[in-house]
Every structure is written in C-alpha cells, then in structure tokens.
Fold:
Amino acid sequence: MSSAPIRFSLVQLRQHPEAVMALVCALLVILGWYTLNLGWIGIALFILTVAYVVGGLESAREGMTTLIQEKELDVDLLMIVAALGAAGLGLWRREYDMIVDGAVLILIFAISGALEGYAMQHTERSIRGLMSLTVDTARLVRQGGEERVPVSALHIGDRVLVKPGELVPTDGRVVEGFSILNQASITGESIPVEKTVGDEVFAGTINGTGSLRIEIHQPPESSLIQRIIRLVQQAQTEAPPSQQFIERFERGYAKAIVVGGLFLGILPPFLVGWSWEETIYRALIFLVVASPCALMASIMPALLSGIANGARQGILFKNGAQLEQIGRVRAIAFDKTGTLTTGQLQVVDLFAPQEARLLQVAAALESLSEHPLGEAIVQAARQQGLTWPEAVGGQAQVGRGIAGEVEGERAIAGKVDFVQAEVRAIPPDWHQQAQRWESQGKTVVWVAQAGELLGLLAVADTLRLEAKMAIARLRQLGVEEIVMLTGDRERVARSIAEQLGVDRVYAELLPEDKVTAIRQLQKQYQTVAMVGDGINDAPALAQASVGIAMGTAGSDVALETADIVLMADRLEKLEQAIRLGRRAQTVVKQNITFAIAFVVLLLIANFVGKMPLPLGVLGHEGSTVAVTLSGLRLLRG
Structure:
C-alpha cells in the first residue's frame, strides 16, 4: 500500500459533486450572514436564497421523490419545510436572522449527503479492484494450435494454455504440465502451491515457471473470483438492521412533526381561542424548534471527532457507523497469513553439526533458484554475514529440490526423498527432528554434500511479535470469542493457534468458506469483526459487522472493502479501536438524550410559556452547539 499523503485537487473535487455543493453552500451562508450584519438586506437575501437552492435542491428532490413514490415523509422533506418556514417567518416579521437559521439547517443536511456519496464511491472502487484480478482473453487450444478468445466465450470442456507468469483466466483442472502457482489472492497461503495433472486451479492465481494446459469444468461466470466479486457486492449493499431502524425512525419522526405542525397551524383558534396570527406564529416556531438538527448533531460531530482521534493513532475509520459498531464487537475472526503472521518466509530453525557450513552450501545452491523457500535461505545466510562459493551446474527438479556442484563437490538441497538417494545413511534422530518441525507446520529442507548430510533447515511464516499480546488484551477487554480463518493447512493453522491462544481454528478455507464462518459467528454473537489483509479476505471483510484490514500488508481490495484500516499493521491498535468505539457510543447516547430532552423543553415553552421566536431559535441553535461541543470530547486521548 502506498504511504503517500492524501492530496486534494480540483480533479478529486469533481469526483465528489456533493462535497462541492456543501462547500459552496457553506461559503454562501457565511457570506449571507456577513452582508446581513452590514445591513445590506437585499444582497444578503439574494445570497441566502442561492444558498437554499444550492444546498437544499438535492434534499428537496429526494424528499419529494419519497413522498410521491413511497407515500412517506422523511427527514429530508422535514428539513426543507422547517427551513422554508424559518425563511417565511423571518420575511413576515422582518427578522432576517431566521433566514440564516434555515440556511444552516440546509447546510447540515448537504454535508450529510456529501458523506453518503463518498461512501458509495468507495464501494465502487472495491469492486473495480476485484475486477483487476480477471483477464479478458484466454489461449484456447484447438487442433494443436492456439487462439486468443474472450474468456466469456469459453465453454465446459475447452482447454486453455497458461504460460509462465500469466494469470489463470478461469477455474479448471490441469490436464498437462507441472508448475507452481501463487494462490495468495484466493487462499491466502504464504507458500506457492505445486500443481500437476488432475489438480484444480483458480482464476486470478498467478502461474509460476511451468506451462499448464487446463480443462474448463464450469462456466467462467461461476469461477471463484467471480463469486468473490458477487459476495462483496451483496454484503456491501445489504443495509444492516441498525441502518434500517434509523431510516424508519427518521421517517416516523418527520411524519409526526409535519403532521403535528399542520394541526397546530389549524386547530388552536377553534380549541383555545388563539388568533390566526398567533397560531401560525406558534406553528412555525414548532417546526423550527422541533427540527432534528440537534438530534443529528448528536451523532456526526462525535463520530467525526472519534475518527480524527483514531487517525492520529494510526486507526483509519472509513465511516462513523463503524466507529460505533466496533464498540459492540463480541467476537473477532483473524486471517492468519499477513495478519497474525508476517506473511514472509524465514529460516526459523537449524539442525546441523556446523550451522554456518550448512547455510553456506544451502545458500550457494538456492541462489540459483527463484523459489520462495530458496529466497528465505539466502536471506538467512546474508543476515548472519556469511559468504558462500558459487554453485555451478545447477539442476532444479520442480517440487523436489535443487542439485549442483559447490567447491567441486556435488551438493543437493530439497525434500528428504530427493536427498536421501545420494547420502550414505540418515540417523534416526534426524528423521525425528524433521517430523517434529513438520508437526509444527514448518517446511523442512535437507542439505547434503559429497554424500554426507550437512543438516536440516526449517522454514516458516513467522508470527507477528505483537500478535500474542494483542489477543491477550482483547480477552481482558471482554471479547468473548477469538477465531482464526485461513486457507492454509490444518497442521500449520493448529500450530499457530496454539502459540497464540486462539479459541477456534477454521483451516483450508476458500473465500466463500470464510464468509460462511463469519455468518455462523454472527448468529451466535451478533456483532463480529474480521481482520484480514488479502484479496481472499475481501468477502469476509464485507460480510463481517466490522471489517478491519492491515494497512501496510493489505491488498487494495481488502483496504477498500474494510471499514477500518490499521495503517501501521499494529494489531495492538485493535484494543484502542474498541475502547474508542465504546467511548463514542457513550457520548452519542448522552447527546441524544440531551437533544431530545431539550426539544421537549422548547416545545413545552412554546405552547405553555408562549416563548418568543428569538428565544426559540436561540434554544434550538444553542442545543445544537452544545451537543456538537460534547461530541468534540472524543478528540482527546
């Protein structure tokens, strides 16, 4: 992931027209208020009228659309009614500050619309990132020749050729050839996987050094990578229950206020003997003081402050809803490779009479290889400051090992069955050591020279240093269940889980299996977080109540799909994120309680104490400012 700073430009602004409209509206409101204070009434009224149009046109359109098509009143329409009521009341009584108040109401909702548009663009980018893993054409084999055809034109039974370094175009089975494929985009496995005749390969994986002929066994649109894309789309477009509740509440609230305002504008002359002027006056004050500005300000300033606080600590919250949601998490699922582990192979153990000699000979041979295991061995020798002689006549046998001459003597490194054919004898304790390492999920490399065993090397993906402590702190925080989801082998996964103290392990999973596991956890714990870094984690990140991506190691798709990004890949930041989310919940609840109580107080004062309009406006705006300042408390700590 690029660490370049975010830069704002005219091009970026054009990509977010809602943000541009909100910015223009804000400038117009400020300018209108300033000219009004200068006494330029006509100019001020013109500027504020433009602000109403610029900031309120989209809300008015959405509110009217909801009213006409769904026969429902929502907060958008209530905002327009309240703002126009304030403007009309201000013109009627020549109290022009009321027009500014109406413009401020519109500005608040314009900002909300800008945030919504920004979130939608993030969803679109995540889908485009997934699409980059697919190719448009494939090498179709016909009568001994090759022909480039669109992937969509392939049928079951067709055979395609995949050359070294190319993306596999669609799912299929190998019918000819041998190669090593990088399946990290699908399974998250840190070590490339050997594929030969009869093995299944997946679209979006990268072919290694050998050519493969693959027979298509299912339509291209049913390939695993296409299913991943559909899973991400489905999970991101499904509104969670909390969002549905908020939408229903807003519409019910808007309906109650509008209907209440109409009754209050008609009935008092008949019921309590008010004059029509007094009735309209009180009804318009009702619309102003009952406007949900303070209620809405109870939430967003607090969440935005929490987001800013998190950003200072290296925790990127993509939206305010997830800041609240992370505080409710009861279970957390972790991907293994690149999340709980570094995702980089390293030599972790040596077994040899002379370790330096073992590393020198192994590095000499593996320097001729491009296999990830070989790169790890060469890196280990460099870290110890060793130099090694040049190996000549290197011959690699794919999936077995490599042989060559080192200092004039035949040397060999690889699997036990590849090496033992050229050594005189293998002591029993060497076999026992190899079996112990393999039971821990490590890959064992045997090394011999001149018919004598030099030793064994164990290569593995290493744990992140902070992983164990991070999991322990999550338990202290009250997280009830911690699980690990991985596409890696069962034995490797179990070994990692035992070292970390993870509650449950799901191994050898495909991306859709991870989604199933997340759904099962959600049935039991409701609010579940998923932490991952790879493309294969994207569907599970989207399905989880809160998706959390590793910022440095994470793929572009994981970063776009996730709700929260740990910018420095520091797992201990999870604890801070949960604590911040819980603080945000508390502040929001306090603000909502205060806002509702103050609205009730203003409504009572309006009809019992006959509150004057300026005091009603002051109370309305004052309560909005109060809850906004309360939300800013989350900037601290």
DSSP finds 24 helices and 22 strands in the chain.
